[in-house]
Each structure stands twice: as C-alpha cells, then as structure tokens.
Design brief:
The complex is a heterotrimer of chains A (about 260), B (about 300) and C (about 325). Chain B has helices spanning about 1-30, 40-55, 60-80, 90-115, 140-160, 165-175, 175-180, 185-210, 220-235, 240-265, 270-295, and strands spanning about 130-135, 135-140. Chain B is mainly alpha-helical and about 300 residues long. Chain B has one domain. The radius of gyration of chain B is 20 Å and the shape is globular. Chain C is an all-alpha fold and about 325 residues long. In chain C, helix 2 packs across helix 9, helix 6 crosses helix 7 (about 195-210) and helix 7 (about 195-210) packs across helix 8 (about 215-240). The chains are: A alpha/beta (about 260), B mainly alpha (about 300), C mainly alpha (about 325). The interface of A and C includes residues 75 and 83 of A.
C-alpha cells in the first residue's frame, strides 16, 4: 500500500520456548487511528518493544514511510517521527513538568553539543513546551516537580512529551491506565482532535475509548493477530468475542463515549 | 611441566579463596543491591580472630571454628547496626558508608592488635608435602584449602538449590520486590545472608593466613579481585562466582608465573622485566574488561533487571 | 545553584550562600594567614585541598550530574601527573608543553575507557572503570625508568617563563585556586546548558531520553572525556605541588577518596566537591592530631553522613536534590 505510514510484516519474536510475537502483520495508513486490543499476556509489550526498537525481532520487518526501520536504534526512530508514550509513566522525576517537555523539544531541535547558554532560558525550547502543557491542561503545573504531580497529571505529561516532538506516528501504550472518568474523557477528546493530522497506534484496554476513537482495530491474542477491521466488524466477529470480549464479560455493545 | 602443575594448583587454590569471598559478595550485591567495600574487612577480621583463638586454645582447628562463628556474629551485628540502614540507597551512599566502615575496621584492628600483624601457625601434621605425581610434591595444607573450600562450595550448592532458605535466596537474587511481597521476613533473611557472607569471608581470611599474612589492610587487595570475580561471574550468581573465581585464580597465578618468561623469549631483558610484570598484574583486569565488553552483564547474570 | 524563588526556603537558601561565601573568603586568606603566622603547613594543606577539590569536581560532573559512578577517576590524576613527570625527566620542563600534554593524555585515556565502559550500567560500570584504573596503575608500577613503585621526584616545577614562577608557593596557591574557581564556573555553565540537560536527563531516565530521540551514548562519552581532562589538569597541579609522582596517585583507594569527597559535600552542589574535600582532609588532619586512631572517628562520621545526610553536607545547609 503506497500510503501506509506503518507496515509491520510477519514480525516474530521468541523468548526461549514462548512465541511472544507470531508473524504479526499490521498496516496503518497515514492519518488512521489504529487500535490494538487483546487480553493481558497477549504480547502487546513485546510488540511495542519491537516497534520502538527496544527489542530486536527474530523475524519480519517494520517499515515506516516505506523505510525499513527494523534494525534502527530507539533514538533514530524517534528522530524519524515515531513517538511513543509509556504505559507506566516514565518521566524525569526530579525535574519540573516544563523541563520534561522542554527536553523532548530539545531532542528535536538540532544537536545538543552546546555547552554554555542556559538551556532553560531558550525560548525556542521553552515556548513549544509551555504550549504543549497548555494544550493538555497542565499549564498550572509547569513549574512543579514531576514527583509532586498526581497520577493523572503524569499520564497527561506522558502524552505531552510524545506530542511535542511533532511526530508523524504516535504510539500510545495504554494512555488511559489509571485515569479517572473525567481525565479519560478529556484525553479522548484530545485524541479525537489529533486524529487525521497525526497517525496514531493506540494500545488500550479501555473499550469505550477504543470504540469511540479507532478507525480500525487489530486484536492480538497469544502473539497473533486474530482479526483486523473497523469497530463494527470486530464487535461482531465471533472469534474475537470468544477470545477477548467474551472473556471480559462484555457483550461488545458498549456505549460510545462522549 | 612439574612447575606448570604446581602453578596450576596454586591457581586453583587462589580461585577457591576468591570464591569464598565472591560468593558472599555476589549474594549481597544480588539480593540487597549493596556495594560492600567493607567485605575485605570481614576477611581480615576472620584471620585476626583465628590467630587469636588459635593462640588461646592452642589448636588451629578450634581457633578456626571459633573464628568462623565470630565472623558470623560480627556480620550479624554489623548488618543490624549499620548495613541495613543503607538498603535502597544509591550506590554512592553505599560506597561512602562502607568506605567509612573499611577505615574504621582497619583502625580498630590496629587498636586491638597493634600495627605489627599476627601469625597463624599450622599444626605440625599439616606442614608436610604430599606426592601427588611422581616427582611432584605439593604442600598438604594447600590441598586442604582446595578440598575444604570445595566442600564449602558443595554445601553452598545444597543450601541454595535444595533448601527453603536457598529458594528464597535465589528468588531474591532475581527479583527482590517479589520476595518482600511474599511476606517473608525480609529483615531476618537479609541479616542471615550478610552474616553468611561475613562467615565465608572470615573463613577465606583464616585459611590463607598460615600461607600469606595476617595484617592490617590485607583485605583491600583481595577485595578488588573478588569484585572482579563477581563482575565476571555475573551479579547474584554463585555458580558464576565459582566459574569466574577459578578463571581469575588461574589466569592470575599462571599468568604471573609464565608471562614474564614468555616475554623474555621475545623482548630485551629490561623491557621484558617491567612489561612482563605489569602485564601479568593487569591480566585479570584485561579479562574482566573483555568479558564486560562482550557480555555486559557477566557470564551468568542471575538478576532479571 | 539557581532555584526558582521560594520564600519558604529563603532562609536556608541564604545559609547556603553564606557558607559558600565563607569558604571562599577562608581560602582567599590562607596565604595571608600563612605569611603572618609563618605556618607554611596550612598553605601546603590547603593547596592540596584545592587540587583535590578540582579532581572531585570533575568526578562530580560525571557522577553527580551524569550518574556515572566511576571508581577509577584517580587514574587521571596519575596520568596528568605522569605526563608532567615524564616530560620533566626527559628534559621538557616547559609548562606550556607539560600541561597540555597532561590534559591531552587524560582525555585520550578517558575516551578509550569511556567508549568501552559506557556500554555497561550500574555496578558493572563501577567495576570496569576500576579495572581500567588498575591497569594504568600496574603500567606505572612497571615503568622502571620513571621510578616504578617508588615513584619519581620532579626537581623542577613546570616552567612558564616570565609569566609565573610556580616555585613561589603563594603564587602557586592562587593559581590553583583560580583554576578551581574557573572549573566550578565552567561546570556550572555546563550542567545548565543543553549538553548538561542531556547528561542530567540521562541520569534521571536514560530510557526516556532515548525514546524522545537523544543518542545518549555520545553525550555521556563527551562528558566523560571532559571530566578526564579536568582531572588530568588536577594531576599536573598535584605533581607540581608534591614535586613527586608515583603509582599511588592512581590507586583505587585514591579513587575512593575522591568519591567520598564528592558525596560528602553533596553530589549536585557546585560547591559540594570543595566542601567535601575541605571537610575530609581537614577532618583527617585534625583527628590525627587529637588521637592516634583518627579513623575510629572518621569512619563512623562517613557512615553517619551516608545514612542520615541524604545529599551530603550540602543538604545540611539548605541544598535540595534536584534533577
């Protein structure tokens, strides 16, 4: 597909006797919001690890904008425009929220072999950072240490950091995890605004969010993609119901959010 | 050839002593994540206690037993009073704190026993050499060291692989938080592990005492080698410590014995002398650097992190 | 040193500044005191404090701010010192040759050590840096021509022609002090620059740094080299100060001393290494005069600081552990 931004071809990873990723193939066209769902232990973490470059696959390829990134290191992928957020907030705990986001800006603002000027006084770094915080409702927290932020605020900060690098593809690893209903709904709105301009791969357990946002959904069970399609197709797919939605105790007719 | 076998056995003997030190260190590193610079002090204390008790009881064996018990006790007290307050802190705090302990113990020993050092003599029966091969006589005591240490290694193996305590140790080495979550009395476990390490260190100290030395600061040099062993073997792994200790012991001993001669064959007299000596001292560190470059987590890393 | 304004901490912030200022005043006045009282030992002692503070400062750059705990940092003191000593013995007495050589040699060794060691983490990194220091130590022991284990006396201090006569102890003292202050200023600018934030971010969360697009390895390596260069300069100063070089300069216990000084003073404070060096050396000296067994007291003090003063002495006077 000529306009696929992300193409995963037969990605395979084994750990000892366990096949964590079994010939996974996913295609994500530019501008799509593609959700990946599946029960715990399905291999989502391994998949993300391979997409971001922290885990080396045993087989298969990953193409980003028609470029083979399978063996590229983590930081290279980020520089090419593939940003991610972490399932468990991974921030710079002893820095302020603004510092955190400014670092992300700095990573994409040329090289950092600058030894003299105070980086905290560079408008080129601080302004986009402040703007990103404003966008996610964290303006008031700019000067607070991350260690002093609430859990929900940290999840917001996670997203802000990924967004500010102006990525082409945003890989979100369970962004709703641990968020209350207000925060979740706010985040869903934010993601909805981003859709179209940005390609998003969303890994989530929160079915409301998934069905509200996703253009297409892939279902990952025991390392294999068992179904791919739009929300309606997935909801009515019998294998999916049995393997995943059935286990969750949901009938698949969840109400759309907001 | 005879010379080679002799040096080989010396290397095995050194390796065994290193293993005793490294086993305790690797457990303490792996389970409590503690960098313990005072481990050499426990080695020194074992030797001093043995020399003292042997003099009192007029028996080497009795002195040795009392010294091991004493080292165990010192380890327990040290853990409860000082060491346990360092858990969970940064490695820097560990270095600072245990370095302070190192200084303290050196001074304490000097206060109690004076600066001159002690001697620990072997009973006459052990002062013989044994013919292990035609034409090759090897000191009995060194064989005893190898034998006893192998026995201790076996005992450790049984302890770690076959007992409940051992299971907790292995679990702790690969995932510290889980063991705590299982509701085990972590405090007691840690105290026992530290005391066990202390006893092993003290035992190593007293075993080498009749051959080498009982003096202040004796722990520092061998401590470095023990750290090297732990690093090569992989933190938290007793099996790794065993393999690495043998490797280090052999490389160091055989290297020192043969490398200068090797150099003499190819280089001028003066160059061979200094280069040979330098290189043989460095050999162990070269090996460690090489291992870490190829396998940055050591040969048998136990920890999953 | 810069913090956002906060009235709660205003008073403690003032205390910290006051203490730092006092330290500077004391250091500036030492030669005056020595001239007035004839106590030359004080000047010798404080010169040593300043030189080791510079070494500890360089260690603090990689260790405190970068999280790279190097147990082999004293090796650069040795390399710097040996560069001066070897060149002096071979007839190159000019400081303009010796000191750049000291810095260059240290930088080169740091480059090699860093390139190989920075692939490892945690305790392994500590051990491998130690290994490289020990290797250099044994090479020095084997250098018979330059004294081997006994060391080598340097009969002539580095010559800078008409610019400055290092044999004048007072001038030498102020030169060392100037270099230390310049070093502290340099480090301060460095850690707040873009480069410094990358280093500090890598210490805080290296995985995240890579995820947002930083190739952390090269930055850490450059930082490692800068620290090595600075420590090499300190080594050149030390060789001049003692008129002597020996392998003991780079023994691992010396590296331990440097770590102690840096941690004692507070690892992220700019004045930390200086306060740590002063405290450690002066305490050692004072205790030696009071008792035959100074370490019986010094040892537990270090232990106490490690356990209770999280943040070293700097925390006592109001510093906060920031990222």
């Amino acid at each position: 597909m000529a306009d696929a931004l992300l193409e995963v071809e037969a990605l395979t990873k084994r750990f000892g006797g366990v096949t964590a990723s079994d010939a996974i193939s996913i295609t994500v066209p530019a501008g799509e919001l593609h959700a990946i769902i599946g029960p715990n232990g399905a291999g989502k973490t391994t998949l993300i690890g391979q997409l971001t470059g922290e885990i080396a696959p045993d087989g298969g390829r990953i193409l980003f904008d028609n470029r083979d990134i399978t063996t590229l290191p983590v930081y290279r992928r980020s520089q090419l425009g593939l940003a991610r957020s972490f399932q468990i907030s991974s921030l710079f705990g002893d820095f302020t929220a603004l510092d955190n986001v400014a670092l992300a800006v700095q990573a994409h603002a040329g090289h950092s072999f600058r030894f003299w000027r105070d980086a905290r006084s560079e408008p080129a770094l601080r302004q986009p950072a402040q703007a990103a915080l404003d966008r996610l409702g964290l303006a008031a927290r700019a000067d607070m240490l991350v260690a002093d932020l609430s859990h929900g605020e940290r999840r917001q900060l996670e997203i802000a950091m990924a967004l500010v690098t102006e990525p082409r593809l945003l890989l979100l690893d369970e962004p709703m995890a641990g968020m209350g209903p207000d925060e979740s709904s706010r985040l869903i709105d934010t993601l909805r605004e981003l859709k179209g301009g940005l390609t998003i791969v969303l890994i989530e357990h929160d079915m409301d969010a998934v069905f509200a946002l996703a253009d297409r959904i892939s279902v990952l069970v025991y390392g294999r993609i068992i179904a791919t399609g739009d929300a309606a197709a997935i909801k009515s797919d019998p294998t999916v119901r049995q393997a995943y939605l059935g286990e969750q105790g949901r009938t698949g007719e969840g109400t759309a959010h907001g | 050839m005879v010379y080679f076998i002799e040096q080989f056995l010396n290397g095995v003997e050194l390796g065994m002593l290193l293993f005793l030190l490294a086993a305790g260190l690797t457990l303490i590193f792996g389970i409590m994540d503690l960098v313990n610079l005072a481990h050499g002090s426990l080695y020194m204390i074992g030797a001093y206690l043995a020399a003292t008790f042997a003099a009192w009881t007029d028996s080497f064996v009795l002195g040795a037993i009392l010294a091991v018990l004493g080292s165990f006790a010192v380890g327990m007290v040290l853990e409860v009073v000082a060491i346990r307050r360092l858990y969970g802190r940064s490695h820097l705090d560990h270095v600072l704190g245990t370095f302070g302990l190192l200084l303290f113990f050196n001074e304490l020993v000097r206060l109690i026993w004076g600066p001159a050092g002690l001697t620990l003599s072997l009973p006459n029966e052990m002062l013989t050499a044994v013919q292990i091969l035609p034409g090759l006589f090897y000191p009995l005591y060194r064989l005893v060291i190898i034998g006893v240490t192998l026995a201790v290694a076996f005992f450790l193996y049984v302890l770690v692989m076959r007992t409940r305590l051992g299971m907790l140790i292995r679990a702790g080495a690969s995932n510290r938080e889980m063991v705590g979550a299982l509701g085990v009395n972590i405090k007691l476990l840690y105290t026992l592990i530290f005391a066990l390490g202390a006893a092993l260190a003290g035992f190593a100290g007293l075993m080498q005492a009749p051959i080498l030395t009982v003096q202040i600061g004796m722990g520092e040099n061998i401590l470095i080698s023990a750290f090297v062993v732990v690093t090569i073997g992989g933190i938290g792994s007793i099996r790794g410590a065993f393999v690495a200790a043998l490797l280090v012991g052999l490389v160091d001993t055989v290297g020192r014995a043969f490398l200068p001669d090797l150099f003499h064959a190819y280089l001028s007299e003066s160059a061979a002398g200094s280069l040979g000596r330098s290189l043989s001292s460095m050999l162990v560190y070269l090996v460690m650097a090489l291992v870490l470059i190829v396998r940055p987590e050591g040969l048998f890393p136990a920890a999953s992190k | 040193m810069k913090s956002p304004p906060d009235h709660r901490r205003g008073a403690r912030f003032g205390l910290r500044r006051a203490v730092n200022a006092c330290v500077l005043v004391v250091l500036a006045l030492v030669p005056v005191y020595a001239a007035l009282t004839g106590d030359n030992f004080a000047m010798t002692l404080f010169t040593r404090v300043i030189i080791l503070a510079l070494a500890a400062l360089s260690l603090n750059l990689i260790m405190g701010f970068g999280g790279m705990v190097s147990f082999g940092h004293a090796v650069y003191l040795g390399i710097g010192g040996y560069a001066v000593g070897i060149l002096a013995k071979e007839g190159f007495g000019s400081g303009f040759v010796q000191w750049p050589a000291a810095i260059a040699a240290s930088s080169l060794y740091a480059l090699v050590v860093g390139a190989l060691s920075l692939r490892t983490r945690g305790v392994y990194f500590i051990m491998i840096t130690l290994a490289f220091a020990q290797m250099a130590y044994y090479v020095a022991v084997g250098l018979d021509r330059y004294g081997g284990d006994d060391g080598l006396t340097i009969y002539q201090r580095s010559s800078f022609g008409p610019l400055i006569d290092l044999n004048n102890k007072t001038l030498f003292y102020y030169l060392c002090l100037a270099l230390l202050l310049a070093g502290m200023y340099l480090v301060w600018r460095l850690v707040n620059s873009r480069f410094g934030l990358v280093i500090r971010g890598a210490r805080s969360n290296e995985r995240r740094m890579r995820a947002i697009g930083f190739p952390t390895f090269r930055y850490k390596l450059v930082c490692f080299v800068i620290a090595g260069a600075m420590c090499g300069l300190a080594g050149a100063l030390l060789a001049n100060h003692t008129n002597f070089i020996s392998p003991a300069m780079m023994h691992w216990t010396r590296s331990g001393d440097l770590i102690v000084m840096a941690v004692l003073g507070g690892v992220q404070a700019m004045f930390g290494p200086l306060i740590g060096a002063m405290t450690f050396l002066l305490l050692d000296e004072a205790l030696s005069r009071v008792t035959d067994f100074p370490d019986l007291i010094l040892g537990p003090i270090l232990l106490f600081v490690a356990i209770y003063l999280n943040g070293g002495l700097d925390a006592l006077i109001g510093g906060r552990r920031r990222g």
